[in-house]
Amino acid sequence: RAKLDGRGTFRFFEPEMDARMQARRQLELDMRQALARREFQLHYQPQLNLKTNQLTGCEALIRWRHPERGMVSPLDFIPLAEEIGLIVPIGEWVMRQACRDAVSWPAPLSVAVNVSPAQFKSDRLVEMIVSALATSGLPAARLEVEITEGVLLQESEKTLQTLHRLRDLGVRVSMDDFGTGYSSLSYLRSFPFDKIKIDRSFVKDLAVKPDGNAIIRAIAGLGQSLGMTTIAEGVETPEQMERIREEGCTDVQGYLVSRPVPADEIVRLIGSCQ
Ligand code: C2E
Ligand code: MG
Ligand code: MG
Ligand code: MG
């Protein structure tokens, strides 16, 4: 429904719609400044191997400390950053910062970095990662790239080539949020992932569904046959951890081990686990 506003121009949106679009536009403007203003920060969440009871590494998770809104969740800005292409410079900052932070952790602890579909469309991704490793001095074997099925959905030939180039460098590749997509299984066939990250929703099912552990058991078995690490995401209780161990998962990540914490805190946490 178009209407004439005070200045004599037509407005095509309902007021609420208009407000939503303005909020989005404002978020976009703010995000364009956030890198230069150093408002982004990385938090790290440890990953634990259930056999050795030792940490294997940490996942880097971006945080945005907005001057007025406080902490903005990545769930609220990463999708927009992807849509408008800003994820490319933001993702580069994440990669470089994560490598710089991880190089001070004791070897062989690794850092896992989330890389989004739009970053895979950029021709510079591999070059950028090579440069981040070289500048920081982090060995490629201590970097892990986490991708979701969104990455494999598009331009599959070029994407697979990029994944193989990363693999040739010695970088490991993980399939994130496994089991939530349309064809998680067929993606396992298209690339030899190092690690399967079982989505948090399946871990939640352990407590509420009678057969909740059947899916976890199946994925753990699949990982074992394929020689891939299987890590359960979102493990919050000792009961969940026990069930996950019983079903054969090799690793866990979740609030039970630790929430994501700032870089200086993760160094202390790693130190206390040594
Ligand atoms: P993800 O990669 O699947 O990361 C795991 C998310 O689960 C994180 O949310 C983490 O804080 C949360 N989590 C971990 N353990 C638990 C638990 O025990 N219980 C619960 N309820 N949640 C847990 P976060 O940090 O809000 O990140 C959300 C998503 O945003 C990530 O999901 C990832 O898709 C995206 N993201 C975060 N940082 C980056 C980044 O640097 N680049 C890109 N491209 N995406 C990122
Ligand atoms: Mg992830
Ligand atoms: Mg995940
Ligand atoms: Mg996720």
From TrEMBL:
Signal peptide start-end: none
Spell out the protein name for this chain: Diguanylate cyclase
Q: Where is the EAL domain?
A: 24-274
